[in-house]
């Protein structure tokens, strides 16, 4: 992972929430929130919360006496998440690095993290921190994307951009969001951090959009792939987005489109 793979700023948070969230994140957020609520936690920490898709689904499912700390490394993402959330006195918003959490030992019943672990530069350290702030018997609930070939629109966009920039293809999607999918590695890193009863479920969903341009804009302008496109040629972002949209249309049609997405959902016990 490159250092630039962690900086969500400018128009990325808004585009991310407008396009990426409904395209790929909402079905997994509903699933993760259901799993989290099933543990009936009284103190919850969410790390790498992004623009708050899990927060919006999980908060209504927690008890009235629960506390919910929502954190992210990137303040612009956290600010956007807070702006989208219904006022709720149980929620505390905290800018926080998952590798060095600013919380006391054994504070939370549940730590959850949807599609954030791929961005951690030192995942074992992040897992040790999650383990540290969990009470004994508490749960760590996280999800990560499977390999890019199992996530069709992401793969389509990556392949399209490789044709535009053959000498230096933008590989952000394959490198980072889809770069941490080895289940044996995930299990060993969690167990090495002190977790037990690690259960990994691979879950396929459908990504749907009203037109081929939606996933093209989502990936090219609502993720850090945008930075890679702009770094290769100034003013090329719209043309690259158009080309990606054409590639998706060629494969999936020009109207409503749908394609497979796939992720690993993991539960571990502190």
Q: Report the sheet-strand fraction.
A: 15-25%
CA radius of gyration: 18 Å
Give the CATH class. Answer: Alpha Beta
Overall number of strands: 7
- How far apart, in Å, are the first and last alpha carbons? 28 Å
- Amount of helix: 40-55%
Fold-level CATH name: Rossmann fold
- Summing up helix and strand content along with how strands pair, one would put the structural category as alpha/beta
**What does the overall shape look like?**
globular
Description:
The structure is a single chain. By secondary structure, this protein is of the alpha/beta class. It has a single domain, classed as 3-Layer(aba) Sandwich (Rossmann fold). The protein has helices spanning 12-38, 53-58, 75-84, 123-133, 152-164, 172-175, 183-192, 213-221, 225-232, 237-252, and strands at 43-46, 67-72, 91-95, 108-114, 134-145, 196-209, 257-269. It has a seven-stranded mixed beta sheet. Strand 2, helix 3 and strand 3 form a beta-alpha-beta unit. Helix 5 crosses helix 10 (237-252) and helix 8 (213-221) crosses helix 10. The longest helix has 27 residues, at 12-38.
């Amino acid at each position: 992972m490159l250092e630039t793979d962690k900086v969500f700023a400018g128009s990325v948070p808004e585009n991310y929430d407008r396009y990426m969230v409904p395209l790929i994140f909402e079905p997994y957020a509903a699933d993760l929130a259901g799993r989290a609520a099933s543990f009936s936690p009284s103190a919850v920490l969410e790390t790498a919360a992004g623009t708050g898709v899990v927060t919006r689904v999980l908060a209504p499912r927690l008890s009235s006496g629960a506390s919910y700390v929502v954190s992210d490394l990137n303040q612009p993402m956290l600010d956007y998440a807070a702006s989208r959330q219904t006022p709720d006195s149980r929620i505390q918003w905290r800018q926080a690095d998952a590798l060095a959490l600013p919380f006391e030992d054994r504070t939370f019943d549940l730590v959850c993290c949807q599609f954030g672990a791929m961005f951690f530069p030192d995942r074992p350290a992040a897992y040790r921190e999650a383990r540290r702030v969990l009470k004994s018997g508490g749960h760590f609930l996280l999800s990560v994307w499977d390999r890019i070939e199992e996530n069709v629109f992401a793969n389509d966009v990556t392949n399209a951009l490789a044709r535009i920039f053959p000498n230096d293809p933008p590989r952000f999607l394959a490198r980072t969001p889809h770069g941490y999918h080895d289940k044996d590695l995930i299990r060993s890193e969690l167990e090495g951090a002190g977790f037990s009863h690690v259960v990994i479920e691979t879950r396929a969903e459908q990504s749907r959009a009203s037109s081929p341009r939606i996933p093209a804009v989502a990936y090219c302008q609502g993720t850090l792939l945008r930075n890679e496109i702009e770094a290769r040629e100034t003013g090329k972002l719209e043309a690259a987005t158009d080309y990606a949209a054409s590639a998706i249309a060629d494969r999936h049609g020009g109207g409503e489109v749908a394609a497979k997405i796939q992720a690993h959902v993991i539960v571990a016990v502190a």
